[in-house]
Specification:
It is globular and about 80 Å long. α2 packs antiparallel against α3, α3 packs antiparallel against α4 and α12 packs across α13. It contains 15 helices and 33 strands. The longest helix has 17 residues. The strands form seven sheets. An eight-stranded antiparallel β-sheet has the order 18-17-23-14-15-22-19-20. An eight-stranded antiparallel β-sheet has the order 28-25-27-26-30-31-29-32. Strands 2-3-1-4-5-11-6 form a seven-stranded mixed β-sheet, with helices on both faces. It is an alpha+beta fold. The protein folds into three domains: about 220 residues, Rossmann fold (3-Layer(aba) Sandwich); about 100 residues, Rossmann fold; about 140 residues, Alpha-Beta Plaits, CATH 3.30.70. Helices cover about 30% and strands about 30% of the residues. A hairpin with a 5-residue loop joins β26 and β27. Bound molecules: guanosine-5',3'-tetraphosphate. The site of guanosine-5',3'-tetraphosphate has 17 residues, from α2. Guanosine-5',3'-tetraphosphate binds next to α2. This is Peptide chain release factor 3.
């Protein structure tokens, strides 16, 4: 292990932090996340051929039995973090599991990134899952760049889409490009900042347009009419005028504070708009920021090494039964073989064989910097939210549990295995694979998950790893909220009053399990001094 003199290390830190971009893509299924991911990797030179990410997704969707779950986890780890370089920037793209594998991890990944890219289908507009993911981004005012996809289809009017983003997501939408036509009449986009026309040509179609982009001298340039026709040119002029009057001008500060999203229009499958998106993203998206701990904020450029665990993935190699803990480096330089302190358990550990995730493979890591994600082998001692540093004891916050949205009661096929069940459930809860609640009034185990596939995974893992055959029964619960109240007397009165709906989670936190949304709302009204939290920090 080489040790750099202090000044050299801090210089290196400044340089490496400034060029890192760690982000995730948020979207509703089918909006085009996989296609855009693939195109970003292709343009970033991380893969040679389109189709590789797609093939993984197809394999994930093949079947839904346990073998597929197992296989999918093997697959999803390589695509969990995709690292590539673009224009001098080191880009870490973190996968947000979607579709059936949508889970609490999807939310938690968003707490480990510095910004997000939102993909919206131009035909459908803002959809449900995007709203949920946006709510998570809002917890940390994460900056969001938007790509409105599928402009080659007859989609909604661009003004209507911007309005939808503003109303449904509560964020200003500031277009950086503007579409010319849509569907069959889609000609391309006008770059509002550069006064440039970019022509669309469908993938594979040859000779549709002589040039990819043409610079015009503003919107009054007669060349515009020649190039796109006078009808579309006057539509474009009218739209841009309307935008100047009623739209939001792009403001980088508002983007960085999460109040405004710059918007690009394009078609990922046709490679259209992807290059501008990637170039602008690399240029404007934020580098790693300071992160809060229970005691102070830690700047990424601090020389002290620190990192936090935001995800644990089990059984990635079924032959080895290994678990990998994903650590986001928050400050300092990581070097292979370095000794760090695992603060929750007060032990010093050597991280000898960390892995870094490349677009397709895992590779041994020699050195990593703030914003990078490394995987470390975990034999069951690491929990989500755990902090590692090489000096000062710290505990990062901001990587919470999220209120589950689906619930099941667990029953054992063989009651003699209750010890195994309990051990399995507690360990799986620590890993963040599921949440476990024990009602105050009975001996049930209630499982809570953000995505339904989590339940299948848990039953299979209980059987394979803990020899406990569990069955599920439906549970009459629709929402969970963690309870907080500084006033001890009110808390006691509340506990007495709604005891039948209260439970303790795996870390003994009081939780209200609501039978339906109406009851939750009513209880919140009746008990205004009680806080009903949708997230809970790890201890
Ligand atoms: P997801 O990861 O967000 O779920 O979306 P994905 O990229 O898989 O895209 C969903 C569907 O939308 C795919 O079609 C994909 O080809 C299509 N798509 C993506 N970008 C565009 C675009 O710019 N224009 C149009 N017209 N379609 C686009 P599919 O039929 O479900 O899959 P496939 O058979 O094409 O692979």
């Amino acid at each position: 292990m080489t040790t750099l003199p202090e000044t050299e290390l801090s210089r290196a830190l400044r340089r490496e932090v400034a060029r890192r971009r760690t982000f995730a893509i948020i979207s509703h299924p089918d909006a085009g996340k996989t296609t855009l991911t693939e195109k970003l990797l292709l343009f970033g030179g991380a893969i040679q051929m389109a189709g590789e990410v797609k093939a993984r997704k197809a394999a994930r969707h093949a079947t839904s039995d346990w073998m597929a779950v197992e296989r999918e986890r093997g697959i999803s780890v390589t695509s969990s973090v995709m690292k590539f370089e673009h224009a001098g920037h080191e880009i870490n793209l973190l996968d947000t599991p979607g579709h059936q594998d949508f889970s609490e991890d999807t939310y938690r990944v968003l707490t480990a990134v510095d910004s997000a890219l939102m993909v919206i289908d131009s035909v459908k507009g803002v959809e449900n899952q995007t709203k949920k993911l946006m709510d998570v981004c809002r917890l940390r005012d994460t900056p969001i760049m938007t790509f409105i996809n599928k402009l080659d289809r007859d989609g909604r009017e661009p003004f209507d889409l911007l309005d939808d983003i503003e109303k449904s997501l509560g964020i200003e939408a500031a277009p950086l490009t503007w579409p010319i036509g849509s569907g069959k009449g889609f000609q391309g986009v006008y770059d509002l900042r550069r006064n440039e026309l970019r022509f669309f040509s469908a993938q594979g179609a040859k000779g549709v347009r002589p040039k990819d982009s043409v610079l015009v001298k503003g919107l009054d340039d007669p060349k515009l009419d020649e190039l796109i026709g006078s009808g579309p040119a006057s539509d474009l002029r009218r739209d841009v005028e309307l935008l100047a009057g009623a739209g939001y001008p792009f403001d980088v500060k508002r983007y960085l504070s999460g109040e405004q999203t710059p918007v690009f229009f394009g078609s990922a499958i046709n490679n259209f708009g992807v290059q501008e998106l990637l170039d602008t993203f690399a240029q404007l998206a934020p580098a790693p920021k300071p992160r809060p701990t229970t005691t102070r904020e830690v700047a990424p450029t601090e020389e002290q090494f620190s990192g936090v665990i935001f995800k644990i993935q089990a059984n990635m190699d079924p032959a080895h039964r290994d678990r990998i803990a994903f650590m986001r480096i928050c400050s300092g330089r990581f070097q292979r073989g370095m000794r760090v302190r695992h603060h929750r358990i007060g032990k010093e550990v050597q991280i000898a064989n960390a892995i870094i995730f490349m677009a397709q493979d895992r590779a041994g890591v020699e050195e990593a910097w703030p914003g990078d994600i490394i995987g470390i082998h975990n034999h069951g001692t690491i929990k989500i939210g755990d902090t590692f540093t090489d000096k000062e004891p710290l505990k990062f916050t901001g990587i919470p549990n999220f209120a589950p949205e689906h619930f099941r009661r667990v029953r054992l096929a063989n009651p003699l295995k209750s010890k195994q069940l309990e051990k399995g459930l507690l360990q799986l809860a620590e890993e963040g694979a599921v949440q476990v609640f024990r009602p105050m009034d009975n001996n049930d185990y209630i499982l809570g998950a953000v995505g339904l596939l989590q339940f299948d995974v848990i039953v299979a893992r209980l059987r394979d790893e803990y020899s406990a055959d569990a069955l599920y029964e439906s549970a009459p619960i629709e929402a969970a909220r963690w309870i907080d109240c500084p006033d001890r007397q009110r808390l006691d009165a509340f506990t007495k009053d709604v005891r039948a709906n209260l439970a303790l989670d795996a870390e003994d936190n009081l939780t209200y399990l609501a039978p339906n949304a109406w009851r939750l709302g009513r209880t919140m009204e009746l008990w205004p001094e009680i806080e009903f939290r949708t997230t809970r920090e790890h201890q």
